[in-house]
C-alpha cells in the first residue's frame, strides 16, 4: 500500500456533495500536485487527507503522521512564530528541539520572535510550511503554499518540495501556479466536476501540449457561466 491511499472518497459539505469517487494514492518519494479551478474541491480533498473533514463514503488511509499546511489564517496573531511552533509541538507530541530546526529551515528564524499578526502573507506561508515540517512526517500536504512568496521564496520552496520528495516523503500540493508545477511535479491530478482525475505522470499529462497551461485547459471541463 502507498503512504497515502484515498479510495472512492465522497465528501458532503453544507448538505451537498462536493467530492465523489475520488481515488488517489501517493507513494514515498513522490511529489503530486492537485490542479483545478477555484471551488473545485482541492482544499476539501486535502482536508480529508488530514482527517479534518469526515468522508461521507470511501476511505482515506495515511501510514503514519501527516505534516500539513492548510492555510495561513489559523494561527493566533498575538503569538510569535516560535511560541506557535512550541505550542504546536507540545500539542502534537513533537520534540521541542525541532522548533529551532524548522525555524532555520524555513527562514522564519529571522522574525520568529515577532508577533504573527505583523507578518506579511509570504511570512505566514513560511510559518505554515514550518508547522508542516515540525512532525518530520513521511506524508506532507500543502494547500497553495506558493501564494504570496517572493521570488527567492518561490525558488526556495521549489527546492524544499523536491528535497522532501527526494528524501522519500509522499508530498501532495494544491497549486494554481502551473509554471512551478511543471518544474517539479512527478504526477498531477485535476479536481473537476466534483471528482478527481487519476494522478498521471507529468509527461503523460502534458502529452503533445506545448505547456502545462494548455494541457490543463484541455483537461478541465468547460467553465459554466455564472
Ligand atoms: N464548510 C463548507 N460548507 C459548505 N460548502 C463548502 C464548505 N467548504 C467548502 N465548500 C464548498 O466546497 C467546494 C470546494 O471548495 P474548496 O475550498 O475545496 O475548493 P478549492 O478547489 O480548494 O478552491 P480554491 O482554488 O478557490 O482554493 C466549493 O463549492 C465550496 O463552496
TrEMBL record:
Domain of life from the UniProt record: Bacteria
Keyword field contains Protein transport: no
InterPro entries in UniProt: AAA+_ATPase, ABC_transporter-like_ATP-bd, ABC_transporter-like_CS, P-loop_NTPase
SMART domains: AAA
Ranges for domain ABC transporter: 4-218
Single GO molecular function: ATP binding
Keywords carried by this UniProt record: ATP-binding, Nucleotide-binding, Transport
Entry's family note: Belongs to the ABC transporter superfamily.
Annotated protein name in UniProt: ATP-binding cassette domain-containing protein
Amino acid at each position: 500500500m502507498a503512504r497515502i491511499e484515498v479510495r472512492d472518497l465522497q465528501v458532503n459539505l453544507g448538505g451537498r456533495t462536493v467530492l465523489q469517487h475520488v481515488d488517489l494514492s501517493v507513494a514515498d518519494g513522490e511529489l503530486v500536485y492537485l490542479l483545478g479551478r477555484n471551488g473545485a474541491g482541492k482544499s476539501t480533498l486535502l482536508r480529508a487527507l488530514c482527517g479534518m473533514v469526515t468522508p461521507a463514503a470511501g476511505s482515506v488511509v495515511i501510514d503514519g503522521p501527516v505534516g500539513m499546511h492548510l492555510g495561513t489564517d489559523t494561527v493566533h496573531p498575538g503569538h510569535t512564530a516560535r511560541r506557535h511552533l512550541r505550542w504546536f509541538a507540545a500539542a502534537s507530541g513533537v520534540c521541542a528541539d525541532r522548533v529551532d530546526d524548522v525555524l532555520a529551515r524555513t527562514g522564519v528564524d529571522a522574525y520568529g520572535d515577532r508577533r504573527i499578526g505583523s507578518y506579511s502573507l509570504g511570512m505566514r506561508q513560511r510559518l505554515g510550511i514550518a508547522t508542516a515540517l515540525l512532525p518530520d512526517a513521511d506524508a506532507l500536504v500543502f494547500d497553495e503554499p506558493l501564494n504570496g512568496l517572493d521570488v527567492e521564496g518561490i525558488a526556495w520552496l521549489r527546492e524544499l518540495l523536491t528535497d522532501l520528495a527526494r528524501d522519500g516523503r509522499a508530498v501532495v500540493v494544491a497549486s494554481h501556479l502551473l509554471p512551478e508545477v511543471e518544474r517539479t511535479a512527478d504526477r498531477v491530478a485535476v479536481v473537476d466536476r466534483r471528482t478527481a482525475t487519476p494522478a498521471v505522470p507529468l509527461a503523460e499529462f502534458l502529452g503533445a501540449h506545448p505547456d502545462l497551461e494548455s494541457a490543463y485547459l484541455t483537461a478541465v471541463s468547460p467553465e459554466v457561466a455564472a
